[in-house]
Specification:
The chain has about 130 residues and is of the alpha/beta class. The protein contains six helices and six strands; from the N terminus they run ββββββαααααα. The chain is elongated, with a radius of gyration of 17 Å.
Length: about 130
């Protein structure tokens, strides 16, 4: 399916346009102005793979726990491992070839700005 954009402007956004790397689109007279990132391509299926999760891990399940961790990141009493264990993602972590490594990677991500980009990528993929 080809997505067409004609005469569209992306202004004052964190990411002007975030699309999957297998997307097919046509752009004409498109302007990017004052975006942190004008145009970004991503491979959502590799988000799960990079974390070591099974590739059939639903985007919604991963997004839910990442958003929760980000939301609670200022809470000094937050136990990210317990948060993961109480989430729907835990089923997929248990099926991973190295669950401890998955947990470690998620904890590392939630403590950095990378979590914002991962949430944006997963959110965009679900639209």
């Amino acid at each position: 399916m080809v997505n067409k954009f004609e005469g569209v402007s992306f202004e004052h956004n964190g990411i002007g346009m975030n699309v999957p790397n297998d997307a097919s689109f046509h752009m004409k007279d498109v302007h990017f102005k004052n975006n942190n990132v004008g145009f970004q391509m991503y491979d959502v299926s590799s988000q799960q793979g990079r974390l070591g999760l099974p590739l059939d891990t639903p985007n919604e399940v991963l997004l839910e726990v990442l958003a929760l961790l980000k939301e609670r990141s200022a809470d000094k009493d937050l136990n990210p491992v317990e948060t993961l264990k109480e989430s729907k993602l835990w089923t997929y972590i248990q099926r991973a070839s190295d669950g401890a490594a998955v947990i470690q990677k998620i904890i590392e991500i939630y403590q950095t700005p990378a979590i914002t980009l991962m949430i944006a990528s997963l959110t965009a993929a679900m639209r």
